[in-house]
Amino acid sequence: MKNNAQSVRGYDRLATVYRGLEICLFGNALHRARLALLDQLPRVDRALVLGDGTGRLLEQLCITQPDCRITSVDQSRQMLNHQKRRVERIGALDRVEFVQADARSYDVPENQFDLVVAAYFLDCFTEEELAGCLPRFLAGLRDEGIFYFVDFVWPPPGWRRRQATVYQWLMHRFFRWQTGLPNRRLVDLNAVLAKQSLVLHRSADRIHPMMACRCYRVQTVGV
Ligand SMILES: C[S@@+](CC[C@H](N)C(=O)[O-])C[C@H]1O[C@@H](n2cnc3c(N)ncnc32)[C@H](O)[C@@H]1O
Fold it and tell me: Ligand 1, closest atom to CA 53?
């Protein structure tokens, strides 16, 4: 497993400018994609939120799920500080546990969560890393649990795909420089997800051609 000190330092540095960067590149689209299916989630008791950065999705999750206890895992102390401030502002601090950890080695408690959230997080990993850690993240879900996935995806071939190639090249260069991201291009997350025991439950693929927000359920053996 690659040492991620450079990644931690990079995200610590980016924490204060992250929102500005996102607005410059995509306006409000990234955030619309984050929230696209939030109001369609059933009431849940426990959620695991992975790599939520400055906590904009976490904040909304606290608001829309007022009875939910949440564990938020992020490697970056500065990102977690942003999350804490947001959650404190809305009076939900007592419901959220903040864990500073490398998610690749974080010991996800099995069968404990109704919801696992990963927004623009899986694209931080190589395909090999995802093959190892995504099944462990999903093993945290109880039966009927929901995996809330938001990320960049490749549009179908055409000019949108060419546009995405340019954007992805720029973003990968930038994150490689700042955080040591090993990937040179966007991992095919659809292919990665297709290898998991997941059933697509809801999808909002029309927010932006490069972004997807989906709810999956874990496929129960024998069904
Ligand atoms: C690209 S940002 C996405 C932030 C946020 N989820 C969003 O919607 O914009 C990736 C986040 O994941 C965290 N992260 C990256 N690699 C990680 C790892 N191995 N373990 C834990 N957190 C990680 C970073 O610190 C950062 O906060």
Answer: 27
